[in-house]
Amino acid sequence: MSAYATLVAKLKRAHTLGTVAGLLGWDEQVYLPPDSTDQRAEQLAVLAELHHAAATDPAIGRALGELEAEPGRLTPDEAVVVREARRDYDRATRLPADLVTEKARHGSAAYHAWTAARARADFGAFAPFLEKHLDLARREAACLGWGDRPYDYAIDKHDPGLDAATITRLFNELKRDLLPLVRAIAASPVKADPTLFRGFPVERQRAFLLKVTERLGFNYRRGRFDVSVHPFCEGSGADIRMTTRFDENNPLDSLFSSIHETGHGLYEQGLPLADLGTPLGQNAGMAMHESQSRMWENQVARGRAFWRHFEPEWRAAFPAQLDGISPDALYLAINAVQPTLIRVDSDEVHYNLHILLRFDLERRLFSGELAVRDLPAAWNALAQELLGLTPAHDGEGVLQDVHWSGGAFGYFPSYCLGNMIAAQNWAAVRRDLPGLEEDFARGEFGRLLGWLRTHVHAQGRRLPALDLVKRVTGEDLSPRHLVSYLKERYLPLYAAT
Fold it and tell me: What is the spatial distance between Cα 199 and Cα 273, in angstroms, rounded to a whole number?
């Protein structure tokens, strides 16, 4: 077997073990019996140990060394695999196995502590788990030479090449231009009716969202939807697991969270299956991942063309609930802009402020400026400053997101970066595909999905996110496309009449 074939085989084995752990994590949040949590923590710890051993197999190092000695013999795709595999291997080999297993074990315990604490709005019960997550994150960063910049390492794990300074610059530019739009909409006399949606049976919601997401292009022979506390997408290649949650009095929550997760699922289903387990079959980071979910959720599914097609079907599914609601009132409700304390319920104008809040708090936690015990007060103060709202309890504040329960620091910025990328890609899509919204009005989404397959999905990890954005759009990532898109959609809707 050639050195390259050996490398690919070893990478795919490690990836397969990672997918098994992912499925156990999915099951933990969807189907795990409540008194089985200790066993699941040990299962995940064992799998983390096995995955780490596979990822640090000396045979990978030997194959990389042989291939790097003769770079001229590599094809461009092989060179990508070697480059990215070297990065992954060097990181994995610098992490002690006991740290890896400790993180996995603690992540499982912390998730269940968070769900219980969230239900009781009791941050104090979760705080020790968060403190340990921070300690583990700092220890991991130190092992890899990032001890003086642990938060930059946390960001780089999710989005290689990005750091807190770059994100701060982009977020400051966005905040400067976004706040006047927020104030203009808040001053508008046009208001969506928050009481329109009541009594939407869950089973009919589920049937409708499955129909919508399949029409967008998701292949249910290689994926499924279930219910969890917090919507998420897990899996890769031929097995994608997505979740949502339902509320009879808030059908838009399940619908848009499902479309969001479908965007993630479409990205994973669009990665080259033959290259699964190698960098060619892996995504370009979480900012790019979130750009896919946010484009489908917002640019597509909140648009008039989308609803010209799906509104009749939605009314047919819920005739009594939507009786007497005009199309204009319905569209305004779908695009209601008003501050809310809950990120996943937020409109796309205020959503970015939610991310700025979390980014600022994470940055301060890692710098030592903010202690874990003081996090709820800091959260509440920033919520008041950015959103004009103060949580009544920690369940609608600092405990609302699942991410910190798994120690996923540095992930939150990817949502806002994803919004920027989605808007910039959307401008390129509309330039390249005239008449796209007429497609949507007919229920046809294949041209958009094809464009994303070619320009994003098929690229795998060939380029980091910011480089891929520049290749696709012809310019560096900028918040101006997001601001322009938001103004184009919402200023006419909220113009005084």
Answer: 42
Query: Tokens 């400790």 sit at which residue?
Result: 102
Tell me the C-alpha distance between 298 and 262, whole Å: 12
Residue 240 DSSP symbol: E
For residues 434 and 57, is the Cβ–Cβ distance under 8 A? no
468-471: which pairs have CB atoms within 8 A and are 24 or more residues apart?
468/284, 468/288, 469/288, 469/421, 469/424, 469/425
Q: Name the nearest CA neighbour of 247 among 198, 207, 283, 295.
A: 198
Within 10 angstroms of residue 336's Cβ, the number of other Cβ atoms is 17
Q: In terms of pTM, does the model score above 0.90?
A: yes
Round to whole Å and give the CA distance between 166 and 154.
14
Alpha helix (H) ranges present in 323-410? 327-334, 351-367, 375-387
Q: How far apart are CA 407 and CA 412, in angstroms?
A: 12
The encoded tokens of residue 209 equal 């969202």
Q: How far apart are the first and last CA of the chain?
A: 72
Catalytic residue among 28, 84, 140, 261: 261
Q: For residue range 136-189, what is the model confidence (pLDDT) as tens digits?
A: 999 999 999 999 999 999 999 999 999 999 999 999 999 999 999 999 999 999
Q: Quick one: tokens of 463?
A: 């380029």
- Closest by Cα among 114, 132, 136 to 124: 114
- 85: part of which helix (H) or strand (E)? helix 76-93
* Helical spans, DSSP H, in 94-122: 97-120
- The answer to whether the CB of 353 falls within 8 A of the CB of 213 is no
Question: Is 234 marked active-site?
Answer: no
Q: How far is CA 267 from CA 22, 85, 181, 264, 350, in A?
A: 17, 21, 31, 5, 25
What is the fold of 164-192+269-493?
A: Neurolysin; domain 3 (1.10.1370)
361 vs 351: CA distance, rounded Å: 16
| Cβ atoms of residues 337 and 490 within 8 Å | yes
Q: What CA–CA distances, in Å, run from 107 to 129, 257, 267, 406?
A: 9, 24, 26, 5
Angstrom distances, CA of residue 395 to CA of 113, 154, 341, 385? 13, 25, 10, 19
Query: Could you read off the pLDDT of 25-81 as tens digits, one per residue?
Result: 999 999 999 999 999 999 999 999 999 999 999 999 999 999 999 999 999 999 999
The domain segmentation of the chain, as residue ranges, is: 3-145, 164-192+269-493
CA distance 72 to 286: 32
Q: What is the pLDDT of residues 430-482, one digit of tens each?
A: 999 999 999 999 999 999 999 999 999 999 999 999 999 999 999 999 999 99
- Which spans in 159-201 are helix H? 164-187
Residue 360, both tokens: 């600022």
Taking a C-beta distance cutoff of 8 angstroms, is the pair 275, 237 a contact? no
Tokens 């292949």 locate to 219
